[in-house]
Every structure is written in structure tokens, then in C-alpha cells.
């Protein structure tokens, strides 16, 4: 029968993967309606004008030390009507995550896929509120497949040729 010593308990504890969410917060937010109030008149006068919406997505991770990482998901939503910008909404949704004991591939997957998946609903809510409070019709971002985006990024980094494009 093997004896369990404090040293064995400590070694076993370090080998166990740990993932903890410590904090979710808005790091930066902005909303601009550069052509207001004229854009509201344009919308009211021309029911045929279809808004065009473009989403730019980004993320970054910062090692804070002691197995803590800040992951920031950036969403920039630009709405144009014709040649004019109706609004520009941007949010940097952040979280502090404790990530320890994972192999390099799993660690990269947590940072590149799991964390953004967790942050996205919060960022989507902030964008939705900004647009509505800016005087525009409600806008709800569709879900984003961060697993597929991360897999595409990994294929490109590995030199796997042209990765398939994602439609969102």
C-alpha cells in the first residue's frame, strides 16, 4: 500500500489542469453616430434604404503572471446606409482567467476558443444596448463559432494551405 505524503499531494495538485474565471468586465466601449441627426431623417424618408452592417472581430491575450491571463475580445460594428455611416459601436470585453496545468495545445485552445466563447454573450449585450440607446433599431449579433475560427487560425499557422472561409 502506497503512503500519501504532503509532497505527493502537492505534485498531484500541480498536474491537475485548472481553469478558473476570475473576472469579466468591459475594458473599453464607444459609440458614434457621426451623421446624426440627418441619418434619422434619411432612414425615415427612404424605407428602401437597406443598412449594411460590417463586423470586425479581434482578440488578444496577456500573460499576467501566476497562471493568470487577461483575454480581450474586441467587436467593432459599423452600420452604413448608402455611402453614409449610421453608427459605429465598439466594445472590448475582457476577462481574467486562471489557466494552469494544460499542455500547450489545450492551453492555446482555451485562450483562442473557450475564453472568447465565454466573453461573446457579454459583448453582444453591450453592442445591442449601445445601438438601441443610440436611437437605432435593435440589433442582435448572431452567434460566432470561435472553435472554427481558432481551428482555421491553427491551420494557417501550421502552413496547411488555404483554409476554408467561414460565413457568419
List its traits.
alpha+beta, disordered N terminus, disordered C terminus, 4-stranded antiparallel beta sheet, transport, SecB-like_sf, cytoplasm, 168 residues, 4 strands, 36% strand, 4 helices, elongated, 36% helix
Brief rundown of the structure:
By secondary structure, this protein is an alpha+beta fold.
Secondary structure layout:
Elements: H1 6-15, E1 18-32, H2 38-45, E2 52-65, E3 68-81, E4 84-100, H3 104-133, H4 146-157
Antiparallel strand pairs: 1-4, 2-3, 3-4
Helix pairs in contact: 3-4
Give your account of this protein's structure:
- Helix 3 (104-133) crosses helix 4 (146-157).
- The protein is of the alpha+beta class and 168 residues long.
- The chain is 36% helix and 36% strand.
- The relative contact order is 0.17.
- A four-stranded antiparallel β-sheet has the order 1-4-3-2.
- It has helices at 6-15, 38-45, 104-133, 146-157; strands at residues 18-32, 52-65, 68-81, 84-100.
Amino acid at each position: 500500500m502506497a503512503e500519501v505524503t504532503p509532497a505527493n499531494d502537492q505534485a498531484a495538485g500541480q498536474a491537475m489542469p485548472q481553469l478558473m474565471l476570475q473576472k469579466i468586465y468591459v475594458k473599453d466601449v464607444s459609440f458614434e453616430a457621426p451623421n446624426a441627426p440627418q441619418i434619422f431623417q434619411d432612414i425615415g424618408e427612404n424605407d428602401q434604404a437597406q443598412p449594411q452592417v460590417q463586423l470586425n472581430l479581434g482578440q488578444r491575450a496577456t500573460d499576467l503572471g501566476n497562471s493568470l491571463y487577461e483575454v480581450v475580445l474586441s467587436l467593432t460594428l459599423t452600420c452604413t446606409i448608402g455611402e453614409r455611416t449610421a453608427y459605429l459601436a465598439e466594445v472590448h470585453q475582457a476577462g481574467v482567467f486562471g489557466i494552469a496545468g494544460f499542455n500547450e495545445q489545450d492551453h492555446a485552445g482555451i485562450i483562442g476558443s473557450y475564453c472568447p466563447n465565454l466573453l461573446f454573450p457579454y459583448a453582444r449585450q453591450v453592442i445591442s444596448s449601445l445601438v438601441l440607446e443610440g436611437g437605432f433599431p435593435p440589433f442582435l449579433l448572431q452567434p460566432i463559432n470561435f472553435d472554427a475560427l481558432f481551428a482555421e487560425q491553427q491551420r494557417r499557422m501550421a502552413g496547411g494551405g488555404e483554409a476554408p472561409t467561414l460565413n457568419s
